[in-house]
């Protein structure tokens, strides 16, 4: 089972290699759609830094849905405006999650479709969610906060005093300081799991061959599945996510698949992008904006408004995929049942109709209806844990760092799914 799942993910090539970022200030690009549709949104060579925001802005201005096509000829619709994205994410009866969440995983759908929590619809999704929700309520998260801070302080100690370092490489276990104990993964496995989850998001070498990229993905996914399988075999505590995963097999009666393992994998990979990638994007911004850094250092604590704006700004997930289960009309467009529809979260988070001055970071922006955690029944179950983790990180960064600047160009993940940073060279002056 471990090898089969990992191999299918790798062979489908759901992630891409990183390349150096394009320069800022690029010329606004016009999106020209013919009768068949454009492949512009799918084209992963365009994705690095904030490079697609010009395209998304143009598409929002034109309104409606946008017909697109993948390189292999698969048509899909793209919702770019905040209202349309929210409708797609909120209306689970018309826009089903029980297929795939990623454009690059299509065909017969994701191997975990209908079994993993993020790839199910109510009532199955609701039953699965009830298994894990008690671990991630606001009171439960508050009980986790002290342990998160202690583990994160220990991680800070590993880089303290170093004037320059690659934040991504040296803080690879950052998300595990927040979710590792909650997941039930032994601390001895955090470094290897942290590296594997980063690698599973895509390659870091723009020159690697397609074969090497697929091999690396296979190895990363196999590592993750092996760690999770071993933890499950050791009967983890019931107050951990993995400890509760065996209960999912009672909800999803599918002897042909390891439902517990698929859900453990879903939670681990779901936790990986939001925390580190929001932090990465914010450090790039703080390192290059003296006014923002001055404001940041004057704060006593990191509040919710700052976290919400960081999530809006970073938008770690570019898009999520849904498939229509009925004929539906969206943004004036007739969408037949069985159609693929993408909700572009990164575009919605810059919608001029919802966010005044959307291309300016406003640390105390309110209201802030960002889409980073989604909407409706699939709103992120771990949002409270992620928020506590990010607040803790930014409080510790303010406490420990006098100044920060870029020591080199960040390298961005080239992926139409994840807005990720894979290398972040920093120069730091410590307090």
TrEMBL record:
The keyword Heme applies. Pfam families: p450 (PF00067). Keywords: Heme, Iron, Metal-binding, Monooxygenase, Oxidoreductase. The keyword rRNA processing does not apply. It comes from the Bacteria. Transmembrane segments: none annotated. Belongs to the cytochrome P450 family. This is Cytochrome P450. It comes from Micromonospora mangrovi.
